[in-house]
Amino acid sequence: MSESLVDKVLSMLQNSGELIQSRLPKLLGVDAKTISKTLKLLERNGVIRREKFVDEGKITYKIYLVKREQGIELNDISWAPCTTCPNLERCGRGQPISPESCEKLTIAIKIEHQKLLSSGGINSAK
Ligand code: SF4
């Protein structure tokens, strides 16, 4: 996944409030499959939400920024192994390959949690 593509999508969402997925390939000059993979990753990480939408007779999605007020940066999710995972397209909740059973993701979350605790970014649970 291209970092600049994530940056562009998030920037466009911050400016416009919503996007239509089927129009992004033309707007960004990127193929639809790459756009779809990127949006699935952002959705899986809670950065965006998508709602089915009919655009010129075709089913697509409207895309919204979930954490708009928090000023999402690429660094917010860059620690996730999903960004470079070859199983990204096959991974999903309730599937044989899933975030719930992914050891790589579990380890990455624990490391990120420990980093946040060490930096004072969060408080430990009591
Ligand atoms: S298999 Fe793990 S690392 Fe790969 S996309 Fe799924 S949760 Fe992310």
What would your notes on this structure say?
A hairpin with a 2-residue loop joins strand 2 (48-55) and strand 3. The chain contains four helices and three strands. The protein has two domains: 1-75, Orthogonal Bundle (Arc Repressor Mutant, subunit A), CATH 1.10.10.10; 79-126, no CATH class. The mean pLDDT is 84. The radius of gyration is 16 Å and the shape is globular. With 126 residues, it is α+β, with helices and mostly antiparallel strands. The chain has a three-stranded antiparallel sheet, covered by helices on one side. It has helices at 3-16, 24-28, 32-44, 103-119; strands spanning 18-20, 48-55, 58-65. Bound molecules: iron/sulfur cluster.
What labels would you give this structure?
126 residues; globular; 3-stranded antiparallel β-sheet; binds iron/sulfur cluster; single chain; Arc Repressor Mutant, subunit A; alpha+beta
C-alpha geometry: globular
CATH class placement of the largest domain: Mainly Alpha
- Beta content: 15-25%
Task: Give the fraction of residues assigned to helices.
Answer: 25-40%
Q: How many whole angstroms does the radius of gyration measure? A: 16 Å
Strand tally is 3
Poorly predicted residue ranges:
none
Quickly describe the structure.
The protein is α+β, with helices and mostly antiparallel strands. It has helices spanning 3-16, 24-28, 32-44, 103-119; strands at 18-20, 48-55, 58-65. Helix content is 39%, strand content 15%.
